[in-house]
Amino acid sequence: MNVTILEFARSFVNERLSADEFANAYMELWKIERDNNVLQEYEDNVDECLSSIFCVADIYNPNSDRDDYELDEDKLRAEVKRLMEQYRL
Question: Max CA-CA distance within the chain?
Fold first, then answer.
């Protein structure tokens, strides 16, 4: 199993990356793995976690006029951490 995308998410949780650096890059990495059928090689819980992280990265909005459902940096980091803990990754 390729763990690059998982380690990338872990780096974000550990504050090695800002949300601006993380969100778009993560979504692009996920799309690359999807298009190359790499996601299918992961165990179900890993695939579900990575897909869930994609969804929350997609609703990240750095602007102060964000909608109620959108996440700021702190909420995005907390949600990625929660997902990784939920799936025990």
Answer: 39
Quick one: CA dihedral 68, 51, 73, 59, positive or negative? negative
Distances (CA, A) of 54 to 2, 40: 17, 15
Q: Is the pTM of this model over 0.85?
A: yes
Q: Are 30 and 50 in contact, with CB atoms under 8 Å apart?
A: yes
Count each helix (H run) and each strand (E run) in the chain, helices first: 4, 0
pLDDT in tens, 25-53: 999 999 999 999 998 899 999 999 999 99
- Token pair for residue 5? 């995308």
Produce one character per residue of 1-28: b if its CB has 16 or more CB atoms within 10 Å, e if not: eeeebbebbeebbeeebebeebbeebbe
